[in-house]
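Minutes, project check-in
Item: structure for the 52-residue chain
Input as provided by the requester:
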Amino acid sequence: MKLVFIIGNSAVGKMTVGRELMKITDLRLFRNHMTTTMWSWRLPKRCAKQGT
């Protein structure tokens, strides 16, 4: 199993780099955006605003 972490500041192109890696390798992309959106409705509003 291969695991690649793409780490960087907000809005620097991490998702774009991940998509390009998918195109040139056989790796799959785990989109963290999907998980944070999926669980954000369960958080209290004060936590959702702070991102914690």
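Outcome recorded: The two ends are 30 Å apart (CA to CA).
No further action items on this chain.
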